[in-house]
Amino acid sequence: MPYRERTLIKGGMVLTMDPSIGDLPIGDVLVEDGLIVKIAPEIDVEDARTIDASSRIVIPGFVDTHRHIWQAAMRNLCQDWTLASYFTGVHAGLSRYFLPEDIYTANLLGSLEALSSGVTTLLDWSHGVNTAEHSDGAIMGLKESGARAVFAHGGGADHYQVPSVVPHPEDARRIREQYFSSESGDDLVTMALALRGPQFARKDITVNDFAFARELGLRITVHVGDGEWGKDRPVAWMCDAGLLGPDITYVHCNTIADDEMRMVADSGGTASVAADVEMMMGHGWPATGRLLDAGIRPSLSIDICSSNGGHMFGAMRSTIGTQRALDHANAQADGREVERLRVTCKDMMSFATLEGARALGMDHKIGSLTPGKAADLVLVRTDDLGMVPLIHPYGALVYNAHPGLVDTVMVGGRIVKEDGKMVGLDFDRLRHRAEDNCESLFARAQAEPALADACVGGGWTPKPYVPA
Ligand SMILES: [Zn+2]
Q: Which of 263, 248, 246 is closest to 210 using CA atoms?
């Protein structure tokens, strides 16, 4: 165990997200050897380092179940693009020009950004790894960041010329053996497979890909139901092919049918809603309410950090906002008014923490402040103009909080952010590295006639992708 000292987080408002413990208006959290060992209104221990949590809300670290971290290398690229333009510009475009060091830098930058905003665990949906060296770079960036992460190996540009006839890269087997064969339960970085599924790969390829993941003993994450491409009953087909299972997280789900959602629920699958990107790119209405109707409490995700910011305060706000608007619109279409909002701010906090942990198969270990779980926790400042008076803490977290209020972040008992500052981060060095990599990436891409119009500045909108 690397952390011998005890840490006492003292006098905060503690929202555990553990229904058996509930919330403490004022409470202490004791951390020992990387684990939460006690939560109580008052804990007296000697020899513990004490963190003053007065004017702070103490919450479990946020869990993001689907983030293409490699796209932090192209941050602020595609805020004005549709999904089809994104496919041309990114997967058929810039992705092919990434070097392994670009992926490394992006994963380090993107994971540190996540940590700084209170996301302590994130699933890296890594589909920009064109070679073994790209995957090595991605894993190195994740490990160096100090975040808890799932490296979900997803292949690279060659696997996203859709519909793909190329199998999932065999290199996943090497990665599994080289980096993740001795997962002891203490490792911060673990592995999953990010599969293309029936929307993006030919069906015989999909059957083999799913068998490959299960042979390697890895959980699966797959995009379904995004936009027009999702209306072809991908989940029903997977069900008929015998592919469904509790080891799968279904990302988006906007345009899958209600009976397909029930198939996901019946098989014990989990879901990930990425409302910002879904609304921007035309995936369809975020599926939160329909998932709930089918008995699935979704997790939340950021998706492409080449467009939107990587913090869960924004994800919670856009997810709750769209669902409430839909509920009001549906009621009004029926000639009635909503009497009580069915999705609450506390629901959002549970989607962003405990349900995220569940979707990663890690709810025994993270997702709530529970004795015995890892000490992944966040202190959010409440001594701020936008946070007082603090009448409704869940409401404040969802509608008023932002990364600037994230004061302290702990992962597995190790403090990665303290007093609002990332510990040990040489920001200028990382920034210059990321900016230099981005400039070189565009220069390499622009040399290709089809990408001659690729440029920075916001003026580039790629022609919509047309599947072969
Ligand atoms: Zn995605």
A: 248
CA of 303 to the centre of ligand 1 (A): 5
Q: How confident is the model at residue 407 (pLDDT cuts 50, 70, 90)?
A: very high
d(CA 159, CA 196): 8
How far the first Cα of the chain sits from its last, in Å, is 53
- The model's pLDDT over 270-286, given as tens digits with 9 standing for 90+, comes to 999 999 999 999 999 99
Question: Ligand 1 centre and the CA of 222: distance in Å?
Answer: 8
Confidence check: pLDDT of 423 > 60 = yes
Q: Are 403 and 99 in contact (CB under 8 A)?
A: no
Question: For residue 312, which of 202, 397, 429, 433 has the smallest C-alpha distance?
Answer: 397
CB count, 10 Å around CB of 434? 19
Torsion of CA 375, 66, 156, 445, to 10 degrees: -100
Distance, CA of 196 to CA of 205 (rounded, Å): 9
* Long-range own/partner contacts, residues 42-46 (CB < 8 A, 24 or more apart): 43/8, 43/10, 45/6, 45/8
Q: What local confidence, expressed as pLDDT, does residue 184 receive?
A: 62
The region of weakest confidence among 112-126, 156-170, 207-221, 409-423 is: 156-170
> How far, in Å, is the centroid of ligand 1 from the Cα of 220?
13
3-class secondary-structure state, position 9: strand
Whether residue 215 contacts residue 241, with contact meaning beta carbons closer than 8 Å, is answered with no
CA of 199 from ligand 1 middle (Å) equals: 13
Tell me the domains of the chain and their CATH numbers: 6-60+372-422 (2.30.40.10), 62-359 (3.20.20.140)
Q: How far is CA 364 from CA 55, 374, 467, in A?
A: 29, 9, 41
> 33 C-alpha vs ligand 1 centroid, how far in Å?
35
Q: Which pTM value belongs to this model?
A: 0.97
